[in-house]
From TrEMBL:
Protein name: INSC protein
Domain Protein inscuteable homologue C-terminal residues, every copy: 70-522
SMART domains named among the record's database cross-references: ARM (SM00185)
GO MF, one annotated term: cytoskeletal anchor activity
Domain Protein inscuteable homologue LGN-binding, first and last residues per copy: 13-57
Pfam families: Insc_C, INSC_LBD
PANTHER family from the UniProt entry: INSCUTEABLE (PTHR21386), PROTEIN INSCUTEABLE HOMOLOG (PTHR21386:SF0)
GO BP annotations, alphabetical order: apical protein localization; asymmetric cell division; establishment of mitotic spindle orientation; regulation of asymmetric cell division
Cellular component annotations (GO), alphabetically ordered: apical cortex
Gene this chain is encoded by: Insc
Species per Swiss-Prot/TrEMBL record: Ptilonorhynchus violaceus (Satin bowerbird)
């Protein structure tokens, strides 16, 4: 989503560092001993051994998370080995190589306890990786037994080459494992007619999709988008629609997912869900999230969504209705984000919104702090207003809905928490509020209302005070443009110094003056 940062999208590594360390600690401690223990059968009877080991496992999802964590540790260790090797820290290189060797064996043993029907190709890569890790450890051990610089120099190139091969085999094995697990989850969906098994498989796909774009590509390539839309077309799985749509939104962040969505008429399916009043609000909200994802202006591969234009009017109508009837801030955020993106996607959307009284609905929502409760929501609203403001008819709608007052308030947008994502959202709100004012102020009535509400002094303050705009250049440019438009309508509202510095010069000269003001105050 363009201006959203939802917790569910958080990647494995992007968590509190202490929490990350605590989770990894059990995998990092005494791995040499653990590796030996895991290689020994506890029971002679194979079935008994499997039963004992698997009894400690929770689910396929948990096992995959364990595998991914182990893979993350190995990947990190390989990177660190390359760094230490560059500095000729041979003792550290060897100890880390031993650790990687043990982690690789542990990962393979762990995976073999919960997987069935591993492919022959996977077994081959497991053997290749283990053999190459053993060779790697032997190489580094030999380096400890000599101090001859020439010998070490010649061995360094061999170690570098081996390290590259280990990383390559490791990457290919992980790719095979994740593909195998994705295929297994998709087989569950295909063969199961039951809600519980399907729900478990969808949950597994969602967990995989959260691990990043590469996993989303694997899922899409293996037919994940097709399988998930198949669920969304069966009434018997209605209770799974929200979870399934959430998974689709994650997968469709990659081009492969978008192509699959187009092939299965995904847009039509989403339109049907959004316009079907018998669905729950949660289902409508998650369908809106998918729309927001696939129409994101940050994506470069949305041009092929020709079917979207065919269904745009009913989608926009359903989304503005969802905004109007939203029972929570989260629902409003998802629906308004989808609308904001659509207004970038095609200008016809702005005309449809104008006919649907969207301005009135959005302005009314902004007065309800329970619904529009974050800078992220206000960012979506002001994006829609900014894009609609290119239409001449929009000005009267803004005036009637007291929209100029709202735009003035948005020029004061500040982050209460200081969180970087929230600060960035506040900057976008200020910038787009100024852009909207500049566009609408071509109408004398809007310009007059803006002057009466003291917009000019606020715009001047934003231009002259870098801290007021959080040192944002984009906010500065937008404020200079809005100030110049209002100055034409009301020249008496500016002092001569403001006019000479902020209005009269070329915009680029005023911009350079304002960006250097911080230095002049010191």
């Amino acid at each position: 989503l363009p201006c959203l940062s939802l917790p569910s999208s958080m990647h494995l590594i992007q968590v509190d560092s202490v929490q990350r360390w605590m989770e990894d600690l059990k995998l990092m401690t005494d791995c040499e001993c653990m590796c030996i223990l895991q290689s020994k059968p506890i029971s002679i009877e194979k079935d008994e051994q499997n039963e004992l080991i698997l009894s400690s496992q929770y689910s396929t999802c948990d096992n995959l998370q364990l595998l991914l964590k182990r893979a993350w540790i190995i990947s990190t260790e390989l990177t660190r080995i390359a760094q230490k090797l560059e500095k000729n820290r041979w003792q550290r290189v060897h100890s880390m190589t031993v650790r990687v060797n043990c982690h690789v064996r542990s990962m393979i043993n762990e995976y073999s306890t919960f997987t069935r029907n591993s492919s022959e190709e996977m077994h081959q890569f497991e053997k290749l990786l283990i053999d190459k890790c053993s060779e790697f450890t032997a190489f580094t051990e030999r380096c400890l037994q000599t101090e001859d610089e020439e010998i070490l120099k010649s061995m360094k190139s061999c170690i570098n080459e081996t390290l590259t091969t280990v990383a390559q085999y490791f990457g290919q094995l992980i790719e095979l494992v994740l593909t195998h697990e994705t295929q297994a989850l998709l087989r569950q969906i295909e063969l199961s007619g039951g809600v519980c098994v399907t729900e478990s498989a969808v949950s597994g796909l969602f967990s995989l999709a959260q691990e990043g774009a590469h996993l989303c590509r694997i899922i899409a390539k293996e037919g994940g988008v097709v399988a998930l839309f198949k669920i969304c077309r069966q009434d018997c799985f209605r209770c799974l629609y929200p979870q399934t749509l959430r998974t689709l939104a994650s997968i469709c962040c990659v081009e492969e997912g978008m192509h699959q969505l187009e092939k299965v008429d995904g847009i039509l399916c989403l339109a049907d869900i959004l316009t079907d009043n018998s669905h729950s609000e949660a289902t409508h909200a998650e369908a809106a999230a998918v729309i927001a994802q696939i129409t994101s202006p940050h994506l470069t591969f949305t041009q092929h969504l020709s079917s979207f234009l065919e269904n745009m009017e009913e989608i926009v109508t359903a989304l503005i209705k969802l905004c109007q009837e939203a029972s929570s801030g989260e629902v409003f955020l998802l629906a308004s984000a989808a609308l904001a993106n659509i207004t970038f996607f095609d200008t016809m959307a702005c005309e449809i919104l104008l006919q649907l009284n969207a301005t009135k609905i959005l302005l009314a929502a902004c007065s309800d702090k329970r619904i529009v409760d974050t800078p992220y929501s206000r960012d979506q609203v002001v994006t829609i207003l900014a894009n609609m403001s290119v239409l001449d008819q929009c000005a009267s709608e803004i005036i009637q809905g007291n929209g100029v007052q709202l735009l003035m308030e948005m020029l004061f947008e500040k982050s209460p928490s200081g969180n970087s994502a929230e600060v960035a959202a506040c900057e976008r709100v200020q910038q787009k509020a100024a852009v909207t004012l500049a566009r609408l102020s071509r109408d004398p009535e809007v310009a007059e209302a803006a002057v009466k509400l003291s917009c000019i002094p606020r715009l001047i303050k934003l231009c002259r005070s870098p801290t007021e705009r959080n040192n944002s250049d984009s906010v500065l440019v937008a404020c200079l443009a809005a100030l110049r438009r209002l100055a034409v309508m009301s020249p008496d509202g500016l002092e001569d110094s403001d006019f000479q510095q902020l209005v009269k010069p070329r915009l680029v000269d005023s911009f350079l003056l304002c960006t250097n003001m911080e230095e002049s105050f010191v």
